[in-house]
Amino acid sequence: MEEEIKVETPVETEKKPLFEKKEAKFEWTLKNIFFSFLWLAPLLIVIDQLTKWAVVNAFNKVEGSSYVVIPDFFQIKLQYNQGSSFSLGAGIPWMRFVFIAISWIASAAMIWYWVKILKKKDVLIDACLALCLAGALGNAIDRTFYWEPVVGFSGVVDFLSFKLFGFYNFAVFNVADACLVVGVLALLVIVFVRDILEKKGKTAKNG
């Protein structure tokens, strides 16, 4: 009987690229920390808290006290907000605990996302996230720790009051509010503009 000859076929192996792209890691150097704006959020939070306490002490914690800086345009007016933006939910006591939870959860989410994208070294996005984080944490501190039995007043401290066009009184706000609004708006503009530029680039290549 003839012996069957078995021919072994070589096992196909996956072709590996000659140069594998390794994901860059963020190096915790002073230069990288500076250009990632990691320092900006804590700085703005300190400024926010210092300005709040300066106004509170200047007016002896009396809500409604004010000082005109520029007539018919800008004044410092002390108000305590126990709700969210524009005093939403201020009349419902338990809503404050909801806002406290939302503030800290949002802050934690921003920190997680920020650390995740640090390796991309996207200076503009990092700066926007620093502003947003400062705004969220600045007001979260007020909502969480400023209660009448503890500090003599209750809620988020607002004091920047502007009259627009000579007749419209804009909602009283603080440094944290300003940081959050500017950060969110800048972030939206950056994402929107980049999306347009990316689409134009793809169209130019295809054309």
Describe the structure.
- The chain has 207 residues and is an alpha+beta fold.
- The protein has one domain.
- The protein has six helices and four strands, in the order H-H-E-E-H-H-H-E-E-H.
- Strands 1-2-3-4 form a four-stranded antiparallel sheet.
- Helix 2 (40-58) packs parallel to helix 4 and helix 3 packs antiparallel against helix 4.
- The protein is globular, with a radius of gyration of 27 Å.
Strand adjacency order, main sheet: 1-2-3-4
Work out the helix count.
6
Distance between the termini: 69 Å
Output the helix-strand order.
HHEEHHHEEH
The gross shape turns out to be globular
Rg from C-alpha positions? 27 Å
Number of domains: 1
Give the uncertain stretches in residue-range form: none
Q: Mean pLDDT across all residues, rounded?
A: 86
Number of strands: 4
Estimate what percentage of residues fall within beta strands: 5-15%
Task: Provide the helix percentage.
Answer: 40-55%
Q: How does the major sheet shape up? A: 4 strands, antiparallel
Structural class: alpha+beta
